[in-house]
Amino acid sequence: MTADASRQPQRRLSFSALMSLTLRTATPNDVDAIHGLMRELAVFEKLLDIFEATPQSVHEALFGDAPAAECLMAEWDGKAVGYALYFHNFSTFLGRRGLYLEDVYVQSAMRGNGVGQALMRQLARIAVERNCARFEWTVLDWNQPAIDFYTSQGATVLPDWRVVRMTGEALNRFAKGNEAPAT
Description:
This protein is an alpha+beta fold. 33% of the residues lie in helices and 25% in strands. It is built from six helices and six strands, in the order H-E-E-H-H-E-E-E-H-E-H-H. Strands 1-2-3-4-5-6 form a six-stranded mixed beta sheet, with helices on both faces. Helix 2 packs across helix 3 (55-63). The termini are far apart.
């Protein structure tokens, strides 16, 4: 049993209105499919130039000795058509952990069939089952269809918060205590 399997019960969900849809916890056998879907997401978000994930890094992150994330697979007629990758964060103000959705992706040909909503609803159930105080994620400001979908489901796009990120050379320089070059 992998660490991932011990954190979340294995279950298959079929929806009567969507008889062809199955949601399930990802297994190591899904790594190539997950990696392929991640790459599709990078293309969709116009960020392929920064996509570095490999099947090996995905396997390590999800199923290695210290898994960093969990993943749900969405299958239509047995074919992987989407995924949701998530992990726990923590709210000091609420004193409880939250569920953070890193990625939710559904192949373009399958959008409009309820796959994304089913993934999001299952993640909400997991958050409730795990007594999470929040279920959070980010959305690109140009992705209006996603923003509209999220708000139609009751989510709030927070106007006052901005994602802050430090990567690459800036991260290494800061970790070493070096000053950033003048701008």
